[in-house]
What does this fold into?
Amino acid sequence: MRRASILLLFLAALGLFAAGCGGDDDDGGGTAGGDGGGGSASEVDLSGASLTVGSKEFTEQLILGQITLQVLEAAGADVSDQTGLEGSVAARRALESGEVDLYWEYLGTAWVNYLGHDEGIPDLERQFTELSEEDAENDVAWLDPAEANNTYALAVRSDTGTGLDEVQTLSDLAELVRSNPDEAALCVGEEFATRPDGLPGIEQAYDFQFPEDQVSLVGDAIVYDQVANGDRCSVGSVFATDGRIQANDLRVLEDDKAFFPFFNVALTMRAEVLEQYPQIEELFAPVTAALTNEALTALNARVDVEGETPAKVAEDFLAEEGIVEG
It folds into this structure.
């Protein structure tokens, strides 16, 4: 697979952004793909290709799934929708078994959960290179990652009126938990509670532990409201590109020891799919370049805060970027 350097990818993202300026959550709402009549996607020919698109079940993944469906349709492919799979393991198994042909995955999830590493590599380019080379042994191909880094994070309300107002970093939080644990009740999603790159890893890396009675397991989508309301918890596990962080006036704590792996998102597929349709790389290059943290956060907010469907949000994004004609 042809790979551009991370630096070149990000420079391309800036150029595409400038050009674009000129011109658990939702069921996805169905596809709204283009007809190949315009946009950069229509310049790539995938007519005759039959591809199944997958995604996980949360908002960002549903949006990315809809983007993928619409771009493939605009290029002339016959596309089947298998988005909304229940969790990371289900999505990966669907890819490996051939139930789906491609879906967007996060570097950190693959490195830790699928390949079994305890810690990420604190250099994005080297992390991607080692991940893609190792996963090639599983016949999984990775396209270059986007700038968007949907890493795990811990967040608090911007103004709590407690000792948390002085907490800026995870080291500060660790010190607060050690000295006054009652001020740091935690809400976490079930997956985050057990992942080595989640709560257990944070506690080990920062040398502290939340008291058991101060930790509540809740759905990932519920964490944001729980922290904002402050009734059940004052700290919560969040995703860095989630639009509900800003909507709920939450503040992300700095990971000052760089514990969290890179969770940049990238399109993955079985190696045989990329070998059969190498033009997929060209087709999705402008999509990848346009997926910045700011862009993805705004897309997520349109679904989770404003109530739009992932299909409509994807359609607007692709039209604004000149990838699929609106």
Observations:
- The chain has two domains: 6-149+262-320, 152-252.
